[in-house]
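lol ok so funny story. i was supposed to be doing the assay writeup but got distracted and ended up predicting the structure for this chain instead. priorities right. anyway since i did it might as well share w the group, maybe its usefull for someone
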Amino acid sequence: MAPPTPLQSLLGLDGLHRDLRAFVETVLVVAGMLGAFAVRRRRRAVTATTFLLLAGSVMIDAGSRFLPNPDVRQKVAVAAFVLFLFGMIRLVLEGIDAITRRGKVHFSTIGKDLLMILLWFTVLMAVLYTDFGVSPVSILTTTTVAAAVLGFALQETLGNIFSGLSLSIGRPFEPGDWIRSGQYVGRVKGIAWRATTITTRAGERLEIPNSVIAKDVLFNYATGAVREELAIGLSYGVPPNHVREVVLTVLRDVPQVMRVPPPEVLAWDYADFAIQYHIRYWIADYGVIEHVRDRVASSLWYALRRHSIEIPFPTRTVHVRDAGRDEDEHADAQFERELMADLRQVDWLRGLSDEELRVLVPSVDVRQFGAGELLIRAGEQGESMFIIRSGTAEVFAHTAEGQTRHLANYVRGDFTGEMALMTGEPRTASVRALTDVEVIEMDREGFTQLFKEHPDAASAIGDIIAARNEDRLAKLSAGDSMNGRGGPHRWLLAKMRELFDIKEH
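and the output, tada:
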């Protein structure tokens, strides 16, 4: 009967009958192969290679007893023993890694791989010394010489390995962080022995050598706040403070722009054709920086156009004869007729004469809002009203619980903001453009002029507005006992007389 092999002794099979030992080894081989098959295509902490090492070592050990030469049989059994220990080291390290990581994305396997190699080397030296009588000193001497030769031949590769080890220890970034190294920008996938893998915005998978990252300046954008800057040139005719107010309002309506740190609008330079402004804002996720920049630039175009703020381009002044004056006057008259037709869509303006409407026309502006922008914000003091010329706008309000409640959709011919305009009360709801919207904006100045020239128009307009807003006016007048005397109609008219300085006759 052949003596038990080192592996059989390690597994406690040396006390069993030979046939029983063979059966147990067969079961271990089958279990190892099934384990490798089960994890072969799954991202598990324990890999198929580990199960194959364990199963293969037991299979080699079982087959060694059929070798006729005792010396060869012993060496094969020792080799199987070493392979089994290698497999067990992998199994233990992968198990510890799975427990400590707990489903998190793996930053780097370099530390685990180095520990595994060190343990393998220790096992190999111990087996060579105990079973073959090889001196550790001679092994270390030979290994040192071989390492010197390989180190000289593989300087660049070793540089990448040690740089990767340094990155693993220092951890300047985590998987999922957006980084920039040199000309490369992408999201980190992980660190391997030779290179760090990132995915660019274009979906490209790049492997940057670790030595390149270690030598270059590394930018990590996962700091919680990343600043973006947009430069724009605007007309000299617009005060910088007005520009700053318009731009900050645009930034406030972009949800990805952070409130803290606050955005900045800096008047930067007096260029040849425009004042250059630098617009700075902060976002939390660098991955959406291009989409946010697009949203800001698009909303700026609409806001600047609404406020008649020109984006200049190089121009040349040429003096020409006034041959086109007739055409210009004809175009102005046509535009005035279109505006008056739009104004007559409002029921409480429909009864005004052409002469009275012409008083309002100089104070009327045509504005454009982009989809997602706010026309009216609840709680603000309103000094204008809007008539929808094209597009769709949504009316909404916030409940006491902080939820958003949809109230209505406005389309061409609808109007909003008349109560705040006529009473000076804060706006009670917000209006947001669902599509690109063109509106007519009417401010308080035009109505002040109208009521001064035609005082009777105030009473007629007040009666119609009061009839349309009976419930709302009743609630407002009930909250003010002095102004509420006489009912909602009188309350509204009193508010209009006070706001527009209308003299009673």
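DSSP finds 17 helices and 16 strands in the chain. Residues 481-485 have pLDDT under 50 and may be disordered.
back to the writeup now i swear
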